[in-house]
From TrEMBL:
NCBIfam families: PRK08381.1 (NF006243). Keywords: Cell membrane, Membrane, Transmembrane, Transmembrane helix, Transport. The keyword Membrane applies. This is Cation:proton antiporter. It is found in: Cell membrane. The keyword NADP does not apply. The lineage of its organism: Archaea, Methanobacteriati, Methanobacteriota, Thermococci, Thermococcales. GO terms for molecular function: sodium:proton antiporter activity. One of its GO terms (cellular component) is plasma membrane. The chain crosses the membrane at residues 6-27, 39-59, 65-84. It is a multi-pass membrane protein.
């Protein structure tokens, strides 16, 4: 069976758009005026990576990767809470 190119499917284009917007968010992480901007940018990129992993898991029919994306999403949520607590104490 011949696999079709990733950019033929709408999911492939979605992955490409998510990757490009994640690349744009690196500007917010590097040049963000405050620490909160950098944290929000990092959390947004991590969430986009979770969605990319989930889409690629469905395309490649490797459903174990969905478990990986769920774990990454939980780590992202806990990390955001820890950083928010750090920022609260810093002030």
């Amino acid at each position: 069976m011949v696999k079709e190119s990733l950019l033929v499917t709408p999911f492939g284009w979605g992955v490409l758009v998510l990757m490009l917007t994640s690349l744009l968010l690196t500007y917010r992480i590097i040049r963000g005026p405050t620490l909160a901007d950098r944290i929000v940018g990092l959390n947004t990129i991590t969430t986009k990576v979770v969605v990319i992993i989930a889409i690629l898991a469905v395309i490649s029919e490797e459903y174990a990767l969905i478990d990986l994306s769920i774990v990454l999403l939980m780590v992202n949520a806990v990390g955001g809470l820890i950083l928010a607590k750090y920022m609260e104490v810093e002030r």
